[in-house]
Design goal:
Blueprint: E1 6-14, E2 23-30, E3 46-49, E4 54-57, E5 65-68, E6 72-75
Antiparallel strand pairs: 1-2, 3-6, 4-5
Length: 77
């Protein structure tokens, strides 16, 4: 049985609509060991902070990246 992914909203904020970013959402995402997320897209800027273990991810057309505990990754556009 595949463990579920848990998401906990930490912050949702609306910003003036005339700015290039009009909202911010911060979530804590928890996944089980060796659990894989399905292929998906982020159509907005993303920032990841790894708080435990290591994750591997890949952006289309780029090599797989491995992020360890304490590392931050940002894709702003």
């Amino acid at each position: 049985m595949t463990p579920s992914v848990s998401r906990k909203d930490l912050l949702k904020a609306m910003i003036d609509s005339d700015k290039c970013v009009s909202r911010v959402k911060i979530q804590e995402v928890t996944m089980g060991p060796k659990q894989k997320a399905p292929l998906h897209l982020h159509h907005n800027p993303t920032v990841r902070v790894i708080t435990e273990e290591t994750i591997s991810f890949q952006i289309e057309g780029q090599p797989v990246q491995h992020l360890k505990n304490g590392k931050v990754h940002a894709r702003l556009w």
